[in-house]
């Protein structure tokens, strides 16, 4: 933005008009964004319980941050459990949704494909459907006698043992380890006894629980539509002559995809992965509807922990502190990811 | 990109905040609301026939407007409550009460309290009471209430903190044992009685289990609110009497935990989710479990959803420490800085006084909290006697501020113990540590 510093009357007039046009946005921005941010930072340093008027809250400095980050106790354990769950959630969902949506975008971008708009609509549909409605539907799918178990049973000719997905706290990595005889009973002491931020090493390596995996799959399904649209727009931006030129040079479709499509999609890739990281690190509504953090806190995510502290545990100040830490985590992750994707992507 | 990221994140954060705060605006409520508005408007018009003002005009200035906020229950209960409010309004020309039944009640109540504009009277669950008291959010009504000694002692205790009785219980439920008569007949077993012990329960659960066909003796959930009945039956307790120390490391607690988890681990009981159900009542109704231990709310649910199930109810079995059950109750609270204290107390007394309590509980859905109404109620609903009998030996569902952390820890631990991911010793040790931390806060 160029700041209007001109002395000529016309410039000044333009500047005034500019500010006038921006006033509504600026007002809304400060009332609904700037002030709440400041308030959230302030409340994160108070012991506000969320019930009494906020003015009665006492300033307690960084105590809330210490409680979740450094002091052993249930608050620290809960926070790092949530961080663990959320990280597994992001590690699963972000790559899945990026790869699948790119794949779908490439497919519906094929000029040879018929009924293109039908497929585009179908793939995009989950993204515009109410997340709560989808969550309720998946709750039925994931029942013990539900669709998912039945399909898996049919595919494996009955070898699949039906499980109650949303009530299963076993971690995926733990399940795999148990095939090799490694369970909490047989695991070496350094795994079960070493405590890292209130969570044992054994718990850290649990992997996402079966219940969380169920939500991850659903989350991927609901988000790939939006990501597909973004990729599709970028794909259609790639000029055709590049492909034609490569064709003359004898490039195969696979080489074209690897050497032309992927590099040209790099800025979009950055955007999609960033959106994915933000979305997964603050997943809330699907947890709220489907599992409320259970079974055994294995679907407790950071955003849900914020809500739970604010409204179930009467610790609004602590909840605000967790929200601020969540912001810092997302911000840091985005910075790291930007480094990796390369700075030329940022435009 | 930074700015955009920041904005995006903040937008979402603010969205959540707004969603939480925006709740103060009046929301459309259950159907009774509309009839209510009519009467509220007609009332002043009738008392002032000379007034030429249109009907839609606000009521006279000297009429106190009260708002009663709660959550919606069954239609029958919502309509009955509205009728009672109408009766109150008809009998009190200077007070007009409005009933507001809201979804997402806890969030809404909390934000309206924090916002300084709480409803004049509102529901408080006994488990939540300590948090509200700790926040100085509610007024102690104990000495303003009618005939306090008539309330069952354990229900008074449920709303008493450090010797102060805060609010009168509007009704209550207790846990009892529901059993499927047909399944007991088929297995050739005697029906459960109030004299049953843990051993009887376990033996019957074992005999009734047919896991190949997905049928279990009992349905149990990973829920402290159910396990705790066994804890008290084993003569254990969550804390000592003056709430200064946790007592979940006791042998009694271990015994209760081993018994409860053992039923599931040995395959004689299953969790609702393993029976394709959202809660134990559903599994019981689907006849996939022969016994459940729910409160009286299950009765209307079963009659409604599973009218063909032939079931009976008896009191919970006795443990090594004798009889015990849990009572779950909600009271009518008044905020500490009540704008219309006298009128609010009048409404509360109207609703929980002997007459109001009788009118409310005559529906047979929730039980009267006044001992004097016991016989009359049992005459109408003899089948529910096991639930009401529980009032004599029930424990209140109320602890200390911040006990949600303990509840979450125990629930999560039970879930792990059911699945074999943790031992019962670890679960209790965890709960003991978390509870100690909460008590020392």
Q: Tell me about the largest β-sheet of chain B.
A: 6 strands, mixed
> Average pLDDT across residues of chain B?
86
Anisotropy-based shape of chain A: globular
Calculate the terminal CA-CA distance of chain A, rounded to whole Å: 15 Å
Tell me roughly what share of residues is in helical segments of chain B.
40-55%
CATH topology of the largest domain in chain A: MetI-like fold
Describe the structure.
The complex is a heterodimer of chains A (347) and B (441). Chain A is mostly helical and 347 residues long. In chain A, 68% of the residues lie in helices and 1% in strands. Chain A has 16 helices and two strands. Chain A has a two-stranded antiparallel ribbon. Chain A is globular and about 65 Å long. Chain B is an alpha/beta fold. Chain B folds into two domains: 182 residues, Periplasmic binding protein-like II (D-Maltodextrin-Binding Protein, domain 2, 3-Layer(aba) Sandwich), CATH 3.40.190; 188 residues, 3-Layer(aba) Sandwich (D-Maltodextrin-Binding Protein, domain 2). In chain B, strands 1, 2, 3, 6, 12 and 13 form a six-stranded mixed sheet that branches. Chain B has a five-stranded mixed sheet with strand order 9-8-10-7-11. Chain B has a two-stranded antiparallel ribbon with strand order 4-5. Chain B starts with a helix and ends with a helix. In chain B, 48% of the residues are buried. At the A-B interface, α1, α15 and α16 of A face α1, α4, α5, α17 and α18 of B.
